[in-house]
Amino acid sequence: MLSNKKKYIVNGNSGIKAQIQFADQKQEFNKRPTKIGRRSLSRSISQSSTDSYSSAASYTDSSDDETSPRDKQQKNSKGNSDFCVKNIKQAEFGRREIEIAEQEMPALMALRKRAQGEKPLAGAKIVGCTHITAQTAVLMETLGALGAQCRWAACNIYSTLNEVAAALAESGFPVFAWKGESEDDFWWCIDRCVNVEGWQPNMILDDGGDLTHWIYKKYPNMFKKIKGIVEESVTGVHRLYQLSKAGKLCVPAMNVNDSVTKQKFDNLYCCRESILDGLKRTTDMMFGGKQVVVCGYGEVGKGCCAALKAMGSIVYVTEIDPICALQACMDGFRLVKLNEVIRQVDIVITCTGNKNVVTREHLDRMKNSCIVCNMGHSNTEIDVASLRTPELTWERVRSQVDHVIWPDGKRIVLLAEGRLLNLSCSTVPTFVLSITATTQALALIELYNAPEGRYKQDVYLLPKKMDEYVASLHLPTFDAHLTELTDEQAKYLGLNKNGPFKPNYYRY
Amino acid sequence: MLSNKKKYIVNGNSGIKAQIQFADQKQEFNKRPTKIGRRSLSRSISQSSTDSYSSAASYTDSSDDETSPRDKQQKNSKGNSDFCVKNIKQAEFGRREIEIAEQEMPALMALRKRAQGEKPLAGAKIVGCTHITAQTAVLMETLGALGAQCRWAACNIYSTLNEVAAALAESGFPVFAWKGESEDDFWWCIDRCVNVEGWQPNMILDDGGDLTHWIYKKYPNMFKKIKGIVEESVTGVHRLYQLSKAGKLCVPAMNVNDSVTKQKFDNLYCCRESILDGLKRTTDMMFGGKQVVVCGYGEVGKGCCAALKAMGSIVYVTEIDPICALQACMDGFRLVKLNEVIRQVDIVITCTGNKNVVTREHLDRMKNSCIVCNMGHSNTEIDVASLRTPELTWERVRSQVDHVIWPDGKRIVLLAEGRLLNLSCSTVPTFVLSITATTQALALIELYNAPEGRYKQDVYLLPKKMDEYVASLHLPTFDAHLTELTDEQAKYLGLNKNGPFKPNYYRY
Amino acid sequence: MLSNKKKYIVNGNSGIKAQIQFADQKQEFNKRPTKIGRRSLSRSISQSSTDSYSSAASYTDSSDDETSPRDKQQKNSKGNSDFCVKNIKQAEFGRREIEIAEQEMPALMALRKRAQGEKPLAGAKIVGCTHITAQTAVLMETLGALGAQCRWAACNIYSTLNEVAAALAESGFPVFAWKGESEDDFWWCIDRCVNVEGWQPNMILDDGGDLTHWIYKKYPNMFKKIKGIVEESVTGVHRLYQLSKAGKLCVPAMNVNDSVTKQKFDNLYCCRESILDGLKRTTDMMFGGKQVVVCGYGEVGKGCCAALKAMGSIVYVTEIDPICALQACMDGFRLVKLNEVIRQVDIVITCTGNKNVVTREHLDRMKNSCIVCNMGHSNTEIDVASLRTPELTWERVRSQVDHVIWPDGKRIVLLAEGRLLNLSCSTVPTFVLSITATTQALALIELYNAPEGRYKQDVYLLPKKMDEYVASLHLPTFDAHLTELTDEQAKYLGLNKNGPFKPNYYRY
Amino acid sequence: MLSNKKKYIVNGNSGIKAQIQFADQKQEFNKRPTKIGRRSLSRSISQSSTDSYSSAASYTDSSDDETSPRDKQQKNSKGNSDFCVKNIKQAEFGRREIEIAEQEMPALMALRKRAQGEKPLAGAKIVGCTHITAQTAVLMETLGALGAQCRWAACNIYSTLNEVAAALAESGFPVFAWKGESEDDFWWCIDRCVNVEGWQPNMILDDGGDLTHWIYKKYPNMFKKIKGIVEESVTGVHRLYQLSKAGKLCVPAMNVNDSVTKQKFDNLYCCRESILDGLKRTTDMMFGGKQVVVCGYGEVGKGCCAALKAMGSIVYVTEIDPICALQACMDGFRLVKLNEVIRQVDIVITCTGNKNVVTREHLDRMKNSCIVCNMGHSNTEIDVASLRTPELTWERVRSQVDHVIWPDGKRIVLLAEGRLLNLSCSTVPTFVLSITATTQALALIELYNAPEGRYKQDVYLLPKKMDEYVASLHLPTFDAHLTELTDEQAKYLGLNKNGPFKPNYYRY
Q1: Which residue, D434, D475, D84, is CA-closest to D270?
Q2: What is the sign, positive or negative, of the torsion defined by CA atoms of A363, A369, A370, A372?
Q3: Contact between C330 and B313 using a beta-carbon 8 Å cutoff
Q4: Any binding-site annotation on B262?
Q5: 8 Å CB contact of A325 and C489
């Protein structure tokens, strides 16, 4: 958890929280005192972060009118009006983005191909609630190609790419989403997906748990026909485990958040690239020779450290866990306490999943021009609130870049106000999203086709063999050729030739 | 100045050579038919590339009116009107950019500090013609602090940051430059710098040779008072060597293009970072596992290869020079001919300084989605012209990104239309510019203060000791502590304790 | 213990499985026809590999006489004769080796220090059967310092360092071991440890399971007083799990083979260094530019690949597992089938844990001078037997290096006859052994002090907290400073401030 | 020949110096007050270092008798007795070593092949004085294949591999050399090469200048027929420049020491590998997490730093030259003064070419177990003499490894007594030697075939084109495919299609 998908930022800001909580939440949604804590109640991607899904995101926005989509009458070119998007006329732009995304999502395209004969999702009626981006669109259209009917809402009020939503609507998908929904819009959209005359979902694909929650609250009877839930976020998974613990989970659920491929890609490999990207786009700084302290040496920290070291930065690491600390040592990083280096470093990066890792005291001691940013969890790692005091001046110098100025003229450079740098200030490579999307598709197929009794009313991890299958679908991208075991070798190793190849505890 | 690198390779092509000689060559300056065309004669910074000087470059542009600056009456807050910029009111924005730049230009700031007693440029009257950016502003204000009077024009019709120009004008610098000058504006601005009642330059700082050319042509008598020329671009240096060869150079000139620090920084270290930055900003691609061919293993190629290898790409190299080829081998890259890998690579990067390295035939054979870009020389390396044929469709998908589509649907992704990727699609770190600017400042000081006879009417390299001094001024940025030789050691090595420390042929 | 790695993969091959079960299996222990044969049943350390424990190993060997230690009357300087070693007079040499080892085993020395007040092993009577090296000696003397009485035999007939055994005997440890024991000697030594008048062990420290087996077979009643078994090898652990499954395990056992630190250190970090060391010592080859194929991308393969890439080799990887394959891709290695590159590579390295990965057919196709070696499992990975055919000539060119010559003159260079390169041709860093030894000591302490009922008659993994403790004891070596959680942070994360810090499934 | 600089250990020990000086040296050999200073007078490879040329070096040594070769009557199998080696019967062992070396010296083998028609050295009578190793043998036999007659002596009294010398004698080469020559033997051998009835050399291949000196002194008339000298060592080159300056050089001489390929390979690439090898073979230490300070960031230092960083060490750098210092910063190393880190580092490595870089004061402050070694110049960098004081105890723990023990028990680990680690404790890869040997062969061909007047009585560098040719001959080893310029490209670049491709000042 400490980990990844940090992405789906959760924050404790009561205003935003309010927006997606209910007056009368059931109790299980109120009791989250522990580990994950408050942050699991709501998710929100800050407005700024939405820029980053695609560099092309905003090219038609300025021409948008201000009428609420709910008040518009729109039809797609086939006369269909079962959708609600910002502007159906933007469909062509969105289609191009989808086509670009398709090129980097080979696994989903392969699934489509394989499904030309059999339709593993024939009969599936999927209701989904995710970020609506070009990559999601490729997933949705793949689900369609596999035989499913889909209805879709956004899981975040800011993250929808209007052009992509339009393209989906134009293609006949009932999509209910736009960028800048109000709290009320948000639930209205979800409801429009679920509450349909003559159509009832039998599968749920959720990201954050809001859709699941809505059905629990408003249409509990629907669960009688639902074969399963596929949930992808830390928050949503946590909610499901809570339900399960409380004995209230009434269908099987698949936790796709903890698959190996997803974890390694989203964290180690993705952060290795996005730390550089995020810092460059915001500060144009040179990495060579810079002194950097990375707080936390989990997968995210490992990725950040490897990249910065490779670019010629001198990297220090802080850790609380002696095992990760020893890894940092063996990988060639000085393990320090933050205090020991805070006066000398040029950059401070948090990747701990913890809170108040960088305190006001640290901030006070940083040298002039020090850059401070967060690659870890939510916006809790840097105590940004402590900087909102009268003697400090804030100066926004660029989008996502603030100078905080001390009375003596010292400035620190705060990126994304302490929110996730990679989500706010860089893009997430499509290829990474492809892995997640493929995992989701396979989880849907698995749950939908599983024989009665294979899955009970509990939360499951994707079988390792499917994890391996997701990986194998991505190998052709790299023109990578897998070796097959001979019968003799398989016997020698005691393995099935088709996998799974490792015990569950294997660490990769 | 941005004109970086070995790029501006001197070459024997008679057409180009002609263009940069200038015995009686009016036709040269008259034939500048298109926007890009004009400037590409000497340093090809395309319009698009100007975006990249600073991420903050454009934030006030949209509010600009369309009146030509030459037709405006503007005064700075002290009532001074000896300047011509887009809009003096933007001065405050520009000042902030300058202040940010100052933080990464420690060497110039150190020079200012040291000059508080003695003013090594007291009495110097410097006329300058360079890109006008925040970094140039720091240089100009440093020259001022060292005692010089300056007048300045832009060396490129597109690259001026209007806000910075405004800030300089507000501070009292006679600056004549704006973004989007016409050909006529260009020479008018230069002339306004030189042709002043009661002021005559005694030093020239040039980037590209246009200012020098103008004085040669229009005010040859001025050279009587001019103590020297400092020139920074390959093109301008080449022009000076031509003049020298022809016996027409009438003052000493300093070639600051070939200093070690400049070359290693501008090429190896800078490209190591900008190749990643340029590719990310344009394509959001993931580097891990991608197959890349880098054409050319000079300093630029070495930087690109090192960075991509570090990010997990599989890199192939092509070379014509067996020594560089052997280095590529020892550094762990497969040395291939382009034909051998062209069908399989995901990215093609040229860094050769050559022409037609990537031909239409290569382009025809690339796989779908292959990215093609140039980090080397001008826009000659990829035969982009060969793609302008009727059967291919061009689709601009983002700024600086074109899809070129074959009849069978294959697309290649062409970046910056084959112009320099790092200049067009990423920013140049201030720190790198700092090294160049410091070298320029020291060259001015050296020429201005050199005793009669030290320099003749010839082109000189900066003395190695000064090169070492530039480097030493940048060490404090890294909190780097140099060791001093003991007397005994200096004697043993036969070196002066203060350097120079290496023979001229040392390769670093 | 040296028996490193995942290597000792548990497998379903019934032949092998049988051999390490031991219900009524006298024939197993009787069939040990050849020197190597005998021991290779459990842990295959070949004779040659024993050279490598320490570069200093052999300096006194040549002066040894040929009398069997069993026939000698030896006393240490205090008149004690309860031991049997090669030559007690070598004690001083051994002591120096032990002292050198102590310097790189800081964790054990720290344990000694902490135990000055409390003696956590007071009353413990430990019988041990491990390799007898300087590192083991540090462990034994640490156990002594912690309050234990120890008696010790060797787990391998070749691996004993006679000088070290002498030093231990001189210090009063009843040690029964020498280099070059016969089969009969082997069991005699074990028996002398166990079968003592007036002393009965209450703890077992085993490496391979032979000691445990002997007690099961000969003195089953001893288990009444035995509090637990600590076992470190894959083979021994497998035997224990078999006993447990069969309901025959009558005391708790601790599997110290699968701790994180041990696995990561023994495999990833250790192999990263020893692949280079082993290749250099045997072939003096240059790594730069060489083409290498590494079969298998588990921890061992990852270490080999990282090191060779860093030294400028071009590395290809083969894999059967798509997840590891995808990791190889993302880390920048071409994933191939062995056949695709076998003709072009300069080095072939196996790290799969599998058998016949390199077949005669592959060997036939390798190019002249190709180097073939194994870093993986036992000696099964390369089909060395297939090279024992009349048309091929074997030429031993150096110790551990054979040229196998084809009729057409082609040679391949086979290292260590396909046995483990790092064990045969390089040394294992003391620091790595320190981690294992510390884990063993802590496991003994844990089992010995555990309250009644904490552990049942089953096989346990060391609690994660102890794993973390082992790591923390090694941090001072690196002058590494761990950060402590604040109360507030611990609460936020739902963690105890002293760990454990990660869930059991965490992958590191 | 073994190449470079640092290696050819010079020492001021008067005993050894005496051994290769003359009573009545001419004055030019006495005046060497400057840069290179005293160290150029003599060279000696310490006995220990000779072990390292080949791991196989010593396998027949123990059986050698003690009779001086000069007193033996030996004939080869063809009845020829014009040689003097230790034992002609060892020829077969030597031949095998030569054959192994041939495999890694592809360029020389290629030269042999190309010379099958024309014999570019037909008529050449070459007298040589170099280390006599398998690699030299490949060079000599190549010269023979190119048409030359050769006579050879050793340039060092310890470095001869007796078996190789025997193999050469068996093949008919008049070789006069053995391991362990006396001073008198040394000059006797040289004289036997030169002073022959009916044979007079017309080319000299020298390594260190002793042969050249001998001819100058004893047979000055020989120079009338000598076409040129090829000299490879720093020392010998320095002597030649002295002669040239003094107007006493009477034939052209070729300095093959400063070619690009030689410098980059011998230093950067070779040291990158040998620093690891040397440390492992002597100390078996683990690199991961170790703190290392590398003194000097020239090519050797760059190689050491890159390798250690890649293995997970934390590396600090000291420098006196600000340009190299800035490179160290950009490459990611903290630049410090030695004093700042001397208390904390685990390893100190000198690569400066300077003297007393590590002083007694530094040694006093090092922590326990710190390893100290030299990769730079001679044995001057570490002030080893300062450790020869009564209060310190020296303990030789392994070959080339001393513990120096302070009164308080602190030990430092001194490798090779401060002489060159790579020469003393690791082997030099044949491939590196191949580059030097090829350069020597080409220099001989060039001088021998140059038309009258091309070379005067001066010291020359090998033409860049030949440097490039040497490189090109080594590319096939890596299956590397060079790209050829098209006519159009060559014209554009103003280059000849066959090179040279770079200006002389190019830095690579």
Answers
A1: D434
A2: positive
A3: no
A4: yes
A5: no
Distance from CA of C276 to the nearest CA of D (A): 8
Burial label, D118 (beta-carbon count in 10 A; 0-12, 13-18, 19+)? exposed
- DSSP H or E run through B127: strand B125-130
C330 and chain B in contact, CB less than 8 A:
yes
Local confidence pLDDT in tens for the 508 residues of chain D: 333 333 222 232 333 222 333 323 333 333 333 333 222 222 222 222 222 333 333 334 444 567 899 999 999 999 999 999 999 999 999 998 898 889 889 899 999 998 888 899 999 999 999 999 999 999 999 999 999 999 999 999 988 999 999 999 999 999 999 999 999 999 999 999 999 999 999 999 999 999 999 999 999 999 999 999 999 888 899 899 999 999 999 999 999 988 888 888 888 999 999 999 999 999 989 999 999 999 999 999 999 999 999 999 999 999 999 999 999 999 999 999 999 999 999 999 999 989 999 999 999 999 999 999 999 877 899 999 999 999 999 999 888 999 999 999 999 999 999 998 987 888 778 888 899 999 999 999 999 999 999 999 999 988 999 999 999 999 999 999 999 999 999 999 999 999 999 988 788 9
Task: Give me the sheet containing C203-206, strands edge to edge.
Answer: C175-176, C149-154, C125-130, C203-206, C228-231, C253-255, C459-461
Q: Is B479 annotated to bind ligand?
A: no
List of chain B residues whose C-beta atoms are within 8 Å of the C-beta of residue C276:
none
Determine the distance in angstroms separating the CA of A372 from the nearest CA of chain B, rounded to an integer: 16
Q: What is the distance between the alpha carbons of residues A35 and C216, in angstroms, rounded to a whole number?
A: 47
Estimate the crossing angle of helix B299-310 against helix A299-310, to 10 degrees: 170
Q: Does A220 touch chain D (CB under 8 A)?
A: no
CA closest to B346 among chain A residues: A478
Which of D314, D329, D330 is facing A332, going by the closest CB pair? Answer: D314
**CA atoms within 13 Å, Cβ hemisphere of C444:** 34
Single out the residue of A409, A401, A340, A402 nearest to residue A368, CA to CA. Answer: A409
Q: Does residue D389 sit at the C interface (CB-CB below 8 Å)?
A: no
* Closest by Cβ to A321, choosing from C320, C357, C501: C501
CB within 8 Å: B485 and D34: no
Distance CA C59, CA A110 (A): 64
Smallest Cβ–Cβ distance between B398 and the set A55, A291, A478 belongs to A55
D307 interaction partners in chain C (CB closer than 8 Å)? 310-311
Retrieve residue B389's tokens: 């044929």
Q: SS3 of B198, please?
A: coil
Two structure tokens written together for C355:
């058998």
DSSP three-state, residue A4: coil
- Which of C398, C429, C477 has its CB closest to that of D56? C398
Q: Where are the alpha helices (DSSP H) in D405-463?
A: 421-425, 430-449
Q: Which residues of D touch B474 (CB under 8 A)?
A: 326
Q: Which helix (H) or strand (E) holds B130?
A: strand B125-130
Residue D302 is assigned to a ligand binding site: yes
And the tokens for A466? 């499917």
Query: Distance from C490 to chain A by nearest Cα, in Å?
Result: 9
β-bridge partners, B175? B152
Report yes or no: B476 at the C interface, CB cutoff 8 Å.
no
Whether B303 contacts chain D with CB within 8 A: no
B window 484-503, beta carbon within 8 A of D: 484-486, 488-489, 492-494, 499, 501-502
Handedness of CA C140, C146, C151, C153 (dihedral sign): negative
Phi and psi of D395, rounded to 5°?
-135, 120
Sign of the alpha-carbon dihedral angle for D83, D89, D90, D96: positive
- Could you tell me if B9 lies within 8 Å of chain A, comparing CB atoms? no
